[in-house]
């Protein structure tokens, strides 16, 4: 019976590890991509008078590229990711609605005006994502203590399962960080 509960807790910990970090990571990557797009689009419009549709084609793959490609051409409501709040969805809809409606000079000033909001959202998302990664460190310490207590009380089988569950949760969060590193390298060097 104890083995059943240990396996059950292992499964719950593993499932939590897979889902806990992914939402905050997606939100951070979306707002980070949006901020970079806003800055890049402003430079492209000021320098080359490049249309928004062409600018969205140069974006790296991800949720924001999918959203921006469709939003630059048509109504963006359908393509807004479901992990954003209602306020954020409304802002995104009005942002691309404005970009489609004004001329190049107006777009440039609009993009500059949007920077503070986008920087705030990106910083907030980064903060949440950082809290998430700190959670994995605290979880590692907690798992170590629990494992040692279980081993001292001659519960080696449960201690092993707890250690394995903790390892899977932390590795899941670390894999996202490694993925972020490669995405950052791709965007810095314009690799596809």
Name the descriptors.
192 residues, mainly alpha, elongated
Q: Treating each run of at least 4 consecutive H or I residues as one helix, how many helices? A: 6
Helix content: over 70%
What is the number of E strands? 0
Strand content: under 5%
Residue windows where pLDDT falls under 50 for at least 5 positions: none
Radius of gyration from the alpha-carbon trace, in angstroms: 22 Å
The structure class reads: mainly alpha
Main sheet summary = none
- Following the backbone from N to C, one meets helices and strands in this order, namely HHHHHH
Q: Indicate the mean pLDDT.
A: 76
* N- and C-termini, Cα separation: 51 Å
- Overall, the morphology is elongated
Overview of this protein structure:
The chain has 192 residues and is an all-alpha fold. It has 6 helices and no strands. It has helices at 2-48, 52-57, 63-71, 86-101, 104-152, 156-188. Helix 1 packs parallel to helix 6 and helix 5 packs antiparallel against helix 6 (156-188). The longest helix is centred in the middle third of the chain and has 49 residues, at 104-152. The chain is elongated and about 75 Å long. The termini are far apart. The mean pLDDT is 76.
């Amino acid at each position: 019976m104890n083995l059943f509960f240990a396996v059950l807790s292992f499964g719950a910990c593993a499932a939590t590890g897979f889902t806990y970090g992914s939402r905050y990571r997606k939100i951070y990557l979306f707002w980070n991509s949006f901020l970079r797009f806003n800055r890049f689009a402003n430079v492209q419009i000021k320098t080359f008078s490049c249309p928004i549709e062409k600018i969205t084609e140069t974006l790296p793959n991800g949720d924001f590229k999918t959203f921006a490609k469709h939003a630059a051409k048509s109504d963006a409501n359908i393509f807004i990711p479901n992990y954003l709040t209602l306020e954020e969805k409304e802002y995104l809809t009005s942002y691309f609605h404005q970009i489609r409606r004004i001329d190049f000079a107006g777009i440039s000033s609009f993009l500059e005006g949007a920077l503070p909001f986008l920087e705030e959202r990106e910083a907030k998302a980064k903060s949440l994502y950082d809290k998430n990664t700190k959670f994995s460190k605290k979880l590692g310490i907690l798992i170590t203590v629990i494992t040692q207590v279980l081993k001292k009380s001659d519960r080696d089988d449960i201690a092993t399962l707890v250690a394995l569950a903790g390892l899977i949760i932390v590795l899941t969060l670390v894999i996202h960080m490694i993925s972020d590193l490669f995405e950052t390298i791709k965007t810095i060097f314009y690799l596809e």
